[in-house]
Automatic annotation (TrEMBL), chains A, B:
Annotated source species: Aestuariirhabdus litorea
Keyword flag Metal-binding: yes
Family: Belongs to the FPP/GGPP synthase family.
GO molecular function: (2E,6E)-farnesyl diphosphate synthase activity; metal ion binding
EC number annotated for this UniProt entry: 2.5.1.10
Cofactor(s) demanded: Mg(2+)
Protein name: (2E,6E)-farnesyl diphosphate synthase
InterPro entries: Isoprenoid_synthase_dom_sf, Polyprenyl_synt, Polyprenyl_synt_CS, Prenyl_diphosphate_synthase
GO term, biological process aspect, one: terpenoid biosynthetic process
Annotated Gene3D superfamilies: Farnesyl Diphosphate Synthase (1.10.600.10)
Keyword Transferase: yes
GO cellular component terms given for this protein: cytoplasm
Keyword terms of this UniProt record: Isoprene biosynthesis, Magnesium, Metal-binding, Transferase
Amino acid sequence: MSIQRYLEISQQRVDRHLQQLLASAPVGAERLREAMAYSLFNGGKRVRPMLVFASCEALGGDPEQALPAAAAVELIHAYSLVHDDLPAMDDDDLRRGKPTCHIAYDEATAILAGDALQALAFEQLCQPVPTHNSGLQLQLVQLLARGAGLYGMVAGQAIDLAAVGKPLGLDQLEQMHNHKTGALICASVEMGARIGGASADQLQRLQRYARAVGLAFQVQDDILDVEADTETLGKTQGADQALNKPTYPALLGLEGAKHKAQTLLEEALDALVPFNDQASPLRELARYIVHRSH
Amino acid sequence: MSIQRYLEISQQRVDRHLQQLLASAPVGAERLREAMAYSLFNGGKRVRPMLVFASCEALGGDPEQALPAAAAVELIHAYSLVHDDLPAMDDDDLRRGKPTCHIAYDEATAILAGDALQALAFEQLCQPVPTHNSGLQLQLVQLLARGAGLYGMVAGQAIDLAAVGKPLGLDQLEQMHNHKTGALICASVEMGARIGGASADQLQRLQRYARAVGLAFQVQDDILDVEADTETLGKTQGADQALNKPTYPALLGLEGAKHKAQTLLEEALDALVPFNDQASPLRELARYIVHRSH
């Protein structure tokens, strides 16, 4: 199966589930539900859910069992984008070529939609799954909450905010990204691994894979920001540079950044060496992340 | 034990736990941690944690076992206040006479602090508790997430937003409050009840108690907003009236609202009739909520 086909299937699987979660709302909160759905179904590639599915499958697990976990990471990712785009944060009017949530609705609704998306991630992760015992489910909640919070994604956003306009070294840039995008990507892989029943050694290898892929994702993002034009990317070209944000191309040069992405890809693939063909989607996904053009 | 003493003990117990949770932060995210602590330790009365403890004790449970649940509801409450005060929401500069989080720090930090407080609520609720099986813990996470999200607190805030400047009937006002404050109060009581090992009948009675107390809390809040002056309350007097927000005194008159609060108190106490003296704190708490002067 091609990676494109795998992405499509993963996307359809998780989108069906997410749609059910947002099928209704209490009277008077319809606009909140709409804003949540608007932000969630915005053409995202569902890379994180796919990492959950592929990690589970790499161990012979059934991806259907990983559906609540996959939905949960996407809900957290979606909420973070809504809040990131707010005027007080990145102040972005467009995402994927469409008005951001606070433009399409209003700022208050965008704040609340983000808040409710986060709560929904945890709520639906507690739904009974026939094959999961509650110990495993609790572990998944904890992994996700840690990856999302003060020791994970939100810390990365705070480090990012503090860094605007300041010269960052490579180590500091990496520390920021390891939190901002890396933590949720690591949580995605580890959740899939736990559902798939990973041994201690398998878990360690998958964590290595996740750290490399998480960073590669960000390096490639920075490269695309330099290379892509507004039309392809759906956001203003060179936005990070304009904000004087530190990036890998700025620190390493464009060629240096490309070399870094390639090295990280090799590291990710190396971590998967003992795994059999069931890990093919994970391998392909790492290649896709580094070679994608948008 | 007087209710004041019980409040003090509950407050100290939960504050110690909360302080440990916020003892450190990743490098670069110190300001985020500070803003979280600033918002969490702002002189709040810890009514919700006390409801968790008192519900657990009403069934003969050990309140120490309810500590993570008590901390979790307070973390959710604290995050909701931070986001509620934002310029795009209620735009409040003061809370309890101190600058609100976005004034003391900045708006972006306040958004992130709220987000991280929410994640922390769920993360620490997953910490192992010796006497809890993971099935119970998972149930607690789900109760809290539901009470906080699209079918709970955030829905209430959205209904509240939509209602500004519009005439609301009594039923609509109640529907708003049942979500905005009631849902988290119900979750607090139900979490305590589950930890205390409530039977189906006990649970139903405690839910009745919680619904009445939750609404009484809001009615009394509206009354205080009319009666109290800025100094006592620490927020601008009559702020709700100024915003043309619907309130119980506006709909029922001041005396009518007081009568309503008294009726709800009686309903709450009636729900507790079959409980023995272990439910005294719950009874006292209901009286305190209706008779408090700030």
